[in-house]
Amino acid sequence: MSLPQVRVKISSLYEDLKKSRQEFEKDSSAVLNSRKIVENALQDGNTYYGINTGFGALANQRILGEQLTQLQRNLILSHSVGVGNLVPKDISRLILQLKIHALCIGCSGISMETLQRLLYFLDHDLIPVIPEKGSVGASGDLAPLAHMSLPLLGFGQFWNEEGTDTIEASTILSAHNLEPVELQAKDGLSLINGTQLMSAYGAYILEKALYLLKVSDVASAMSLEALQGSIKPFDERIHQVRPHKGQLEVAENIRFLLRNSEILESHRHCGKVQDPYCLRCVPQVHGASRDALRHSIETLQTEINSVTDNPLVFENGDIISGGNFHGQPLALALDYAKIALAELASISERRTYLLLEGHDGLPKLLMQKTGINSGFMIPQYTSAALVSENKVLCHPSSVDSIPTSLGQEDHVSMGSISALHLLKVYENVETVLAIELFTAAQALDFRKPLKPGEGVEKAHKAIREAIPHATEDHYFKDDINIAQRLIRERKLIQNLDGEEYHLH
Description:
The chain is mostly helical. It has two domains: 10-194, Fumarase/aspartase (N-terminal domain) (Fumarase C, Chain B, domain 1); 201-308 and 321-502, Up-down Bundle (Fumarase C, Chain A, domain 2). Helix content is 55%, strand content 3%. It has a two-stranded antiparallel sheet with strand order 1-2. The chain has a two-stranded antiparallel sheet with strand order 3-4. A hairpin with a 6-residue loop joins strand 3 (157-159) and strand 4. Helix 4 packs across helix 9 (196-226) and helix 15 packs parallel to helix 17 (415-445).
């Protein structure tokens, strides 16, 4: 049974895909062997779906002779019906990389000429332009992958270098002295059958989510310190008697971030009994999201190291039609990931709200002079709006199905919709956490000269180096943008001077 030469992991996504590309250069025998099986099959007189037949509801129509290459060309052209906004260049590149990775496993029977052209595109950063909508998440991401394949034929567009504009594919091919590819039997079907749009969105977001989980723990620790919350709910013994892995990890992270806190010591015997849930239940809530995302990541890792086109070509010469293109595993996992990420924002917004109420010596709205100043009131509105939007986006796309192909494809996953919504949810969560970070930093300033825990203090310093303490109303949108950039550039955890390895 064929297996990928390099198993790609979400945590090392881009490095592993680069290794996979390099391994193919060393050994392309699996691809060559599968292609030879397809070529032999064309001579044996038998019928093979999509190789010498029509597609979908037209599977019973036999195609012969010179029409075989026209069949594959027509497949790409007829399926290029995507609409809507364009998939961002980074994700389009990942779609191309994941398609190449799957084809190189050697169960697709693609011709080497076509595969080599895809590799040329990747190596020269010629990234096809792909509309985001048009896939129903079964039979593969047909329309998006057809658009990915259009430049092979000289149609469609590529992204410019910056990913800000598009260029006609014919113009780029001419500049590179390339002629359009003549697709061989099975090539078109190998290209557009597959779950690479769903997989690319999922992998792109979940790789970032691994870092965002750490950010959410840092933000909650900062808010806990600023609100003079108790460290008792993070006692290891509490979590050992309910040992969900994510819960244990988060509790340990908070204990690490609050290590040697002067603020904690100052109110250790204050008499408060319990904090609100948004502080006290951070391990349980963040931890549950971690465990859900862990499951989604496992599903994505299986998928991106799989062959998801149809029919499949096996080493013994068998060519078998099946349903590996069906996106149901991804649709469910991506819906689950949406919910898990949304909950990080939901509890974060509650902590932001709490910071504004004026508890335990903090000024209301985190400014001394309010009335003329609205203080930090309105950034919380933005958080509330984004949290509410996520509730709509988190409706599970996977519970829907509309038959296609004249009923031949009578159950579809709609996982592509899950994927598109997951990106929006992630962006909203990132913004909500960014708002909590600079709001908590403002609140922590009022606890001076007492110092917070060592990890919190370093995170606070990273924020203050980019966003100054606010004494009056100003253009808060700049603060949001800067805090988002700190998250995206992964500088917040870097500021722990290598100690990020203590954070799970």
